[in-house]
Write a structure and sequence with these properties.
With 123 residues, the protein is mainly alpha-helical. It has one domain. 69% of the residues lie in helices and 3% in strands. The protein is built from 6 helices and 2 strands. It has helices spanning 2-17, 19-22, 38-42, 51-81, 84-98, 108-121; strands at residues 27-28, 33-34. Strands 1-2 form a two-stranded antiparallel sheet. A hairpin with a 4-residue loop joins β1 and β2 (33-34). α1 packs antiparallel against α4 (51-81). The protein is elongated, with a radius of gyration of 17 Å. The two termini are 14 Å apart.
Length: 123
C-alpha cells in the first residue's frame, strides 16, 4: 500500500508544480474566452480586458502549486520514514491548498480521500 501511495504522491507533486503550464479549462471575460494555461494568458493581446484576470489566475495556480508540492514532499518524506500520521497531516494540507481549484486541478483531493479510506480500512 505505501509504495502505491508514494508513487501517487510523487505524481501529484509533479502535477502541482506544473498546474500553470498544463492547465485546465478556464474562461475569462464577459464572453467567457477560454484561457487554459499561463502561456495562453501571456499570449493574450495587451488590450484584452480579461488579460490581467487570466494572468492573475494562472499566477495563483503557480504559487499554490509550489506550496502544495512542498507540502507533498513533506508527505513523501513521512511516508518513506513510516510516519503515517505526519504523512496524513501533510496530505491534508495538500488537499486543503488545492480547494480553490477543486474540480479543475483534481490532484490532491482524490489522493487524500483514497489515503484516508485505506488507512481507515487498515485500522
Amino acid at each position: 500500500m505505501i509504495d502505491d501511495v508514494i508513487r501517487k504522491v510523487e505524481a501529484a507533486i509533479d502535477a502541482s508544480e506544473h498546474w500553470q503550464e498544463r492547465g485546465w479549462p478556464a474562461v475569462f471575460g464577459p464572453r467567457n474566452v477560454e484561457v487554459p494555461n499561463m502561456k495562453a494568458a501571456e499570449e493574450l493581446p495587451k488590450n484584452a480586458v480579461y488579460r490581467e484576470e487570466a494572468l492573475n489566475y494562472w499566477r495563483q495556480a503557480e504559487l499554490l502549486g509550489i506550496d502544495t508540492a512542498q507540502a507533498g514532499r513533506k508527505a513523501l518524506d513521512a511516508l518513506k520514514d513510516g510516519r503515517l500520521d505526519d504523512a496524513d497531516n501533510a496530505l491534508y494540507l495538500c488537499q486543503y491548498l488545492e480547494k480553490p481549484f477543486e474540480g479543475h486541478a483534481v490532484t490532491w483531493i482524490p489522493l487524500y480521500e483514497s489515503y484516508r479510506s485505506s488507512r481507515n480500512a487498515n485500522h
